[in-house]
Structure formats: structure tokens, C-alpha cells
Design brief:
The protein is mainly α. It has a two-stranded antiparallel sheet with strand order 1-2. A hairpin with a 2-residue loop joins strand 1 (122-124) and strand 2. The relative contact order is 0.15. It has one domain (6-176). Helix content is 82%, strand content 3%. Residues 118-137 are annotated as: Disordered. The chain crosses the membrane at residues 51-75. Keywords: Membrane, Transmembrane, Transmembrane helix.
Length: 188
């Protein structure tokens, strides 16, 4: 019998969509727009204000994604254990999620450092200027990398969602389930 997981799947997918899209928009739009501010001493303030508004929404999106993911894992535990390829894609997705969580948390730490430096002259949200204090410049340079890693990692999770969606097709399930014991028997 088929079981529907609409609520947890929606939480999982919408949370991931917001996490991915929000961080990508922030990297492109928030940090880019800050560079357009004419006063270099106000650019960091503009970037910080945008990211501060996004942070609670991002936290809610990540929480929804994780709760939904846990629900889907529980609902599909039999397929994860029995169907060839599902365990591997689940492990890869888990690894990407852990990496994305780590980079997101580190980005927030860097963001807090930049909030403390409000008023420092910069070229943009992640671009130091010649007058930018060394500590602020270092945090900006690290954040410049991290801001692109989060959407890359969460984008990878979205690709693995597509893989797992294909693995749920009826034509994929039975052959995938039968392939595991066949592989084990051939190894004996």
C-alpha cells in the first residue's frame, strides 16, 4: 500500500529551496547591492542589515528541511536499507547536509564579526577596500568563499533529491531491491 508523506516532503523541499535560494540571492543581491552604496563606511552596514533580516528566515528554513528530512528518512527506512543505490544517495545527501550546515554556521560567525565592524570602510559586503582593517578584510575574504559554498552544497542536495525521486519510481524499486541480494549471493 502506498503511503503519502506530503507534509514532511513539503517541509524538506521548501526548507531546502529557501536555504538554497536565500543564500544565493544574498550572495548576488545583498552583498552586490552593498557595493553600490556611495559611502564606503555604510556599505558593510547595508550588507549586515540585509543578512540580519534573512538569518531568522534561514534558520526556520533549515529547521523545516531537517525535520522534513528526518521524517522522510523514517518513512523510507526500508527502501534505504533494501534498495540498491538508495543508501548511497542518502549517505551522500547526509554528508552534503552536514557540510552545508557547517559552512552556514561558519558564515554566520563571520557575519557576526562583520556586524561588530559596522562603519569600517569596504568596497562591498565581501570585498575589502584599501582602507579596510586587516581583521575585517580577512573575515570578508573568508565569507566571499563561504557565500558561494552554501548554495553549491544545497544545490547538490537538490540534485540528490532528484536522484532519490527517480529511485522511487515503481520501475526502479523492484529491480533495486532485488539487486542487493543478487549482489550478495554472487559474492558468496
Amino acid at each position: 500500500m502506498s503511503q503519502r508523506n506530503t507534509i514532511v516532503r513539503s517541509m524538506h523541499d521548501l526548507g531546502l529551496a529557501a536555504w538554497f535560494g536565500g543564500t544565493l540571492a544574498g550572495a548576488v543581491a545583498v552583498n552586490g547591492a552593498a557595493a553600490e552604496v556611495s559611502d564606503p563606511n555604510q556599505r558593510l552596514h547595508v550588507a549586515n542589515a540585509g543578512w540580519a533580516r534573512w538569518a531568522p528566515v534561514n534558520l526556520a528554513a533549515i529547521a523545516a528541511h531537517l525535520i522534513g528530512g528526518a521524517g522522510l528518512l523514517f518513512a523510507n527506512k526500508g527502501r534505504v536499507a533494501a534498495q540498491r543505490g538508495v543508501g548511497a544517495s542518502t549517505a551522500a545527501k547526509t554528508a552534503l547536509t552536514i557540510a552545508a550546515l557547517g559552512v552556514t554556521a561558519y558564515s554566520r560567525v563571520l557575519g557576526r564579526m562583520l556586524e561588530q565592524a559596522d562603519g569600517a570602510p569596504v568596497e562591498g559586503g565581501t570585498d575589502p577596500g584599501s582602507d579596510t582593517p586587516a581583521g575585517v578584510a580577512k573575515a570578508q575574504q573568508q565569507l566571499k568563499v563561504a557565500q558561494w559554498l552554501v548554495p553549491a552544497l544545497t544545490g547538490g542536495i537538490a540534485v540528490l533529491n532528484a536522484v532519490e525521486g527517480e529511485q522511487q519510481r515503481p520501475g526502479q524499486q523492484l529491480p533495486g531491491i532485488l539487486a542487493k541480494p543478487a549482489r550478495w549471493l554472487s559474492a558468496v
